Amino acid sequence: MNMTSSTHQERTATAQREADLHQVKLVRIDQVNEWVRVLRLQIPPAKDVKFLPGQWLDVHLPHVRQAGGFTITSTPKDAQHTADRHGYLELAIQKSPNNPPAAWLWKSENDILGSDVHVRVGGNFVWPPPGLDPKRIETVTFIAGGVGIKYTSPIDHLANRCT
After folding, report:
1. I need a labelling partner for 128 at 20 to 30 A (CA). Which of 60, 77, 136, 141 fits?
2. pLDDT tens for residues 130-152?
3. Dihedral sign, CA of 110, 115, 118, 120?
4. 4 CB burial (10 A radius; 0-12, 13-18, 19+)
Protein backbone atom coordinates (compact mmCIF):
# COMPACT_ATOMS: atom_id res chain seq x y z
CA MET A 1 0.00 0.00 0.00
CA ASN A 2 1.32 3.47 -0.91
CA MET A 3 1.40 5.60 2.25
CA THR A 4 2.50 8.75 0.45
CA SER A 5 -0.22 11.36 0.53
CA SER A 6 -0.80 13.52 -2.50
CA THR A 7 -0.35 17.27 -2.44
CA HIS A 8 -3.14 19.82 -2.81
CA GLN A 9 -1.89 20.59 -6.32
CA GLU A 10 -2.05 16.91 -7.31
CA ARG A 11 -5.54 16.39 -5.82
CA THR A 12 -6.93 19.49 -7.53
CA ALA A 13 -5.02 19.34 -10.83
CA THR A 14 -8.22 19.26 -12.91
CA ALA A 15 -10.12 21.83 -10.82
CA GLN A 16 -10.88 25.30 -12.10
CA ARG A 17 -8.32 27.95 -11.12
CA GLU A 18 -8.03 31.62 -11.93
CA ALA A 19 -4.95 32.69 -13.86
CA ASP A 20 -4.08 35.58 -11.51
CA LEU A 21 -1.71 35.13 -8.59
CA HIS A 22 -2.41 37.81 -5.96
CA GLN A 23 0.04 39.13 -3.38
CA VAL A 24 -1.59 39.55 0.04
CA LYS A 25 -0.23 40.23 3.53
CA LEU A 26 -0.78 38.06 6.61
CA VAL A 27 -2.05 40.68 9.08
CA ARG A 28 -3.91 38.75 11.77
CA ILE A 29 -3.86 35.35 13.44
CA ASP A 30 -6.67 34.24 15.78
CA GLN A 31 -6.15 31.07 17.77
CA VAL A 32 -9.53 29.27 17.77
CA ASN A 33 -8.31 26.29 19.80
CA GLU A 34 -5.16 24.19 20.09
CA TRP A 35 -5.69 22.73 16.58
CA VAL A 36 -7.22 25.55 14.51
CA ARG A 37 -6.21 29.12 13.80
CA VAL A 38 -7.89 31.67 11.55
CA LEU A 39 -5.62 33.79 9.39
CA ARG A 40 -6.52 37.14 7.86
CA LEU A 41 -4.86 38.03 4.56
CA GLN A 42 -5.12 41.71 3.65
CA ILE A 43 -5.68 42.60 0.02
CA PRO A 44 -3.60 45.61 -1.09
CA PRO A 45 -5.42 48.86 -1.92
CA ALA A 46 -6.58 49.15 -5.54
CA LYS A 47 -6.41 45.36 -5.96
CA ASP A 48 -9.35 42.99 -6.16
CA VAL A 49 -9.63 39.30 -5.38
CA LYS A 50 -12.94 37.90 -6.56
CA PHE A 51 -14.29 34.51 -5.50
CA LEU A 52 -17.50 32.66 -4.78
CA PRO A 53 -18.43 31.11 -1.42
CA GLY A 54 -17.06 27.57 -1.23
CA GLN A 55 -13.90 28.20 -3.23
CA TRP A 56 -10.37 27.72 -1.92
CA LEU A 57 -7.00 29.39 -2.30
CA ASP A 58 -3.75 27.97 -3.58
CA VAL A 59 -1.45 29.54 -0.99
CA HIS A 60 2.19 30.01 -2.04
CA LEU A 61 4.43 30.65 0.96
CA PRO A 62 8.02 31.88 1.31
CA HIS A 63 10.54 29.03 1.15
CA VAL A 64 7.85 26.31 0.80
CA ARG A 65 8.03 24.44 -2.52
CA GLN A 66 4.45 23.23 -2.68
CA ALA A 67 1.35 25.38 -2.50
CA GLY A 68 -1.22 24.65 0.17
CA GLY A 69 -4.93 24.54 -0.49
CA PHE A 70 -7.20 26.14 2.08
CA THR A 71 -10.91 26.95 1.95
CA ILE A 72 -11.83 30.63 2.09
CA THR A 73 -13.95 31.16 5.21
CA SER A 74 -14.67 34.86 4.66
CA THR A 75 -17.33 36.14 2.29
CA PRO A 76 -16.91 37.84 -1.10
CA LYS A 77 -18.16 41.03 0.58
CA ASP A 78 -15.24 40.87 3.06
CA ALA A 79 -12.82 40.95 0.11
CA GLN A 80 -14.18 44.31 -1.03
CA HIS A 81 -12.40 47.46 0.10
CA THR A 82 -14.52 49.98 2.00
CA ALA A 83 -13.85 53.49 3.27
CA ASP A 84 -13.19 51.97 6.73
CA ARG A 85 -10.99 48.99 5.92
CA HIS A 86 -8.99 47.04 3.36
CA GLY A 87 -10.54 43.99 1.78
CA TYR A 88 -9.42 40.69 3.24
CA LEU A 89 -9.56 36.92 2.92
CA GLU A 90 -9.76 34.57 5.89
CA LEU A 91 -8.63 30.96 6.10
CA ALA A 92 -9.09 28.40 8.88
CA ILE A 93 -5.90 26.34 9.15
CA GLN A 94 -5.77 23.04 11.01
CA LYS A 95 -2.50 22.19 12.72
CA SER A 96 -0.78 19.64 10.51
CA PRO A 97 2.98 19.32 11.08
CA ASN A 98 3.39 16.87 8.17
CA ASN A 99 1.82 19.27 5.65
CA PRO A 100 4.55 21.82 4.75
CA PRO A 101 2.18 24.74 3.90
CA ALA A 102 0.06 24.19 7.03
CA ALA A 103 3.20 23.78 9.16
CA TRP A 104 4.52 27.13 7.84
CA LEU A 105 1.20 28.79 8.71
CA TRP A 106 1.49 27.36 12.23
CA LYS A 107 4.88 28.92 12.87
CA SER A 108 5.15 31.44 15.70
CA GLU A 109 3.13 34.60 15.05
CA ASN A 110 6.34 36.62 15.46
CA ASP A 111 7.90 34.68 12.58
CA ILE A 112 5.08 34.98 10.03
CA LEU A 113 2.85 37.96 10.86
CA GLY A 114 3.37 40.67 8.24
CA SER A 115 4.61 38.19 5.63
CA ASP A 116 3.65 38.61 2.00
CA VAL A 117 2.15 35.47 0.49
CA HIS A 118 0.68 34.75 -2.94
CA VAL A 119 -2.76 33.27 -3.50
CA ARG A 120 -4.79 31.98 -6.43
CA VAL A 121 -8.55 31.33 -6.29
CA GLY A 122 -9.72 27.89 -7.33
CA GLY A 123 -12.44 25.33 -6.90
CA ASN A 124 -15.60 24.14 -8.58
CA PHE A 125 -17.78 23.72 -5.49
CA VAL A 126 -19.42 27.12 -5.15
CA TRP A 127 -22.52 28.74 -3.72
CA PRO A 128 -24.84 29.27 -5.40
CA PRO A 129 -24.22 26.41 -7.82
CA PRO A 130 -24.09 27.51 -11.47
CA GLY A 131 -27.53 27.59 -13.08
CA LEU A 132 -29.41 27.65 -9.77
CA ASP A 133 -31.57 30.63 -8.86
CA PRO A 134 -30.99 31.14 -5.11
CA LYS A 135 -34.34 32.92 -4.80
CA ARG A 136 -36.08 29.64 -5.56
CA ILE A 137 -34.39 27.75 -2.71
CA GLU A 138 -36.52 27.19 0.35
CA THR A 139 -34.23 24.98 2.47
CA VAL A 140 -30.48 24.44 2.54
CA THR A 141 -28.63 21.81 4.57
CA PHE A 142 -24.86 21.95 5.07
CA ILE A 143 -22.81 19.10 6.52
CA ALA A 144 -19.32 19.99 7.68
CA GLY A 145 -16.29 17.82 8.30
CA GLY A 146 -12.59 18.33 8.89
CA VAL A 147 -12.05 21.74 10.44
CA GLY A 148 -15.82 22.20 10.12
CA ILE A 149 -15.64 25.78 8.90
CA LYS A 150 -15.84 25.25 5.12
CA TYR A 151 -19.46 26.36 4.99
CA THR A 152 -19.13 29.58 6.96
CA SER A 153 -18.57 31.53 3.74
CA PRO A 154 -21.73 30.22 1.99
CA ILE A 155 -23.79 30.57 5.17
CA ASP A 156 -22.54 34.12 5.85
CA HIS A 157 -23.10 34.94 2.18
CA LEU A 158 -26.72 33.75 2.46
CA ALA A 159 -27.21 35.79 5.63
CA ASN A 160 -25.75 38.92 4.03
CA ARG A 161 -28.07 38.60 1.03
CA CYS A 162 -31.14 38.22 3.26
CA THR A 163 -30.49 41.31 5.38
Report:
1. 60
2. 888 878 888 877 776 666 554 45
3. positive
4. exposed
Q: For 99, phi and psi rounded to 5 degrees?
A: -105, 105
- Dihedral sign (CA 151, 153, 157, 160): positive
Q: What is the CA radius of gyration of the chain?
A: 16
Measured CA to CA, the distance from residue 48 to residue 87 in angstroms comes to: 8
Using CA of residue 97, residue 60, residue 152, residue 81, what is the dihedral sign?
Answer: positive
pLDDT in tens, 40-66: 999 999 899 999 988 999 999 999 999
Instruction: Give strand pairing partners of 37.
Output: 31, 93
* Residue 80 or residue 16, greater confidence: 80
Length of the chain: 163
